[in-house]
Q: What sequence folds into this?
């Protein structure tokens, strides 16, 4: 608290918490931005031609395993929110492609 109230920028516990929160937010934003060019290109072309079904399935399997493990072990939400964000971005990507990779994006 002294970090904000007293402007004590050398308060190590508060500084660590602030940096951690900021990095977490930046990572989530970055995860969404990574998929954004692909989504925009597919929407403008009105086609998902060239989107690899195998890469979409492998990405989904890997993220589902990570998220499931985190939930099963009662890890805090912040430990798997990145995976959820990427799954949602992949879902939008598949939805907008209207291709065969949409079999899981119902």
A:
């Amino acid at each position: 608290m002294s970090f904000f109230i007293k402007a004590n920028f050398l308060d190590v516990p508060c500084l660590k918490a602030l940096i951690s929160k900021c990095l977490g937010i930046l990572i989530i934003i970055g995860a969404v931005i990574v998929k954004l060019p692909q989504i925009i290109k597919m929407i403008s072309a009105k086609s998902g031609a060239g989107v690899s079904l195998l890469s979409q399935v492998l990405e989904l399997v890997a993220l589902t395993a990570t998220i499931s493990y985190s939930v099963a072990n009662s890890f805090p939400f912040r430990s798997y929110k990145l995976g959820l964000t990427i799954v949602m971005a992949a879902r939008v990507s598949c939805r907008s492609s209207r291709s065969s990779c949409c079999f899981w994006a119902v």
Observations:
- The mean pLDDT is 76.
- Helices lie at 2-5, 12-45, 53-72, 81-97.
